[in-house]
Design a protein that fits this description.
- There is one protein chain.
- The protein is α/β, with parallel strands linked by helices and 316 residues long.
- It has two domains: 205 residues, Spore Coat Polysaccharide Biosynthesis Protein SpsA, Chain A, CATH 3.90.550.10; 100 residues, no CATH class.
- The chain has 13 helices and eleven strands.
- The strands form two sheets. Strands 3-2-1-4-9-6-10-8 form an eight-stranded mixed sheet.
- Strand 1, helix 2 and strand 2 form a beta-alpha-beta unit.
- Helix 9 runs parallel beside helix 13 and helix 12 crosses helix 13.
- The chain is globular, with a radius of gyration of 21 Å.
- 34% of the residues are buried.
- The model has no long low-confidence stretch (mean pLDDT 91).
Length: 316
């Protein structure tokens, strides 16, 4: 199969500066594959790459931008990647033996750290190895080597048929975040699933620590649209929310004597889990204190984001 004629890479972003390095990296691997970038602001230079197309949408919805780009694509297959990521060699090629298997709706794979990172980026990469931060880190970080069906993997690394994308009524353009989880949830109605290919790898850059904490908070803030569709698979998202509710219940220890024992036991258990996770993911002693503190902050921030979201919804 000719990759350049059958695949379109779709990248949603805000500014050209956000995607510039991604495009350079893609072109170092795929010189003629079609690329559609959907961004908010028009570029100020003449695009000399005939296989790269820029389209514009003044929207904060990643899903809406992907939908616009997908409608503009003329190829049989779509490949989704984020503007702060770039593919490893043979990213698309390694999906070919799985993409036509029965019930495979999406082929996905690991999103791992780039080889060159600064100190803070390396810290964030270590945090992502923890199950407290990343859902199914064995798949997302590439530790699991067996191809298999999985319940979910994020859209930073998706390859799928355009036909499937449209049959599933595209992404929900009203969702600011977590549109990929919603898409996969609806995909089950078509009897389609996500298939994990350990060799379909993209490198996903890490930003600053403050940006990562804010990202975790926003992740929770925009989670309610997923959580209100109650099912066995989204229970994972309730855990940080319920734990944060538990934390703010501490005044009850002054009312009920037994609650002090319960509160202390749960809190100590949490600290112990964080401590052992810190030891597991830290390979340098100098990282221990910072990772311990950040694991606590980044575990709790989605829960408080969900709480604020619920408060806003009730107020409105």
């Amino acid at each position: 199969m000719c990759i350049s004629k059958n695949f379109t890479i779709i990248i949603p972003c805000i500014n050209f500066e956000d995607v510039e390095d991604c495009l350079i990296k893609i072109r170092s691997v795929y010189r003629s594959i079609k690329i559609i970038v959907c961004l908010n602001k028009k570029i100020r230079f003449k695009n000399k790459d005939k296989n790269t197309k820029f389209i514009y949408a003044n929207s904060n919805s990643i899903g809406e931008k992907r939908n616009i780009a997908a409608k503009a694509a003329k190829t049989k297959f779509l490949a989704f990647i984020d503007s702060d990521a770039f593919p490893k060699k043979y990213w698309v090629e390694n999906s070919l033996k799985f993409i036509n298997i029965k019930n495979v709706g999406i082929v996905s794979g690991p999103n791992i750290d780039p080889k060159k990172q600064n100190y803070n980026e390396e810290i964030i990469g270590l945090l992502k190895k923890s199950f407290l931060i990343t859902m199914k880190p064995g798949f997302q970080r590439g530790y699991i080597k067996k191809p298999q069906f999985v319940k979910f993997l994020p859209s930073v690394n998706w390859i799928l048929k355009k036909e499937v994308y449209f049959k599933n009524n595209l992404m929900n353009s009203k969702m600011i975040r977590n549109e990929d989880w919603d898409f996969v949830h609806r995909l089950k109605k078509l009897n389609q699933k996500v298939f994990y290919s350990p060799n379909c790898v993209v490198f996903h850059k890490n930003g600053s620590i403050l940006h990562f904490i804010k990202k975790r908070f926003k992740y929770g803030f925009f989670m309610w649209n997923v959580m209100n569709k109650i099912n066995s698979e989204n229970f994972y998202f309730f855990i940080p929310f319920l734990f944060c509710l538990f934390l703010i219940s501490f005044p009850l220890i002054f009312i009920f004597n037994f609650y002090l024992i319960i509160y202390s036991s749960v809190l100590i258990s949490f600290i112990v889990v964080v401590f052992f996770e810190t030891l597991r993911i830290s390979y340098k002693y100098k990282y221990l204190v910072r990772i311990f503190i950040l694991l606590i902050l980044c575990t709790l921030s989605p829960g408080f984001g969900i709480m604020l979201s619920i408060f806003n919804n009730k107020r409105n």
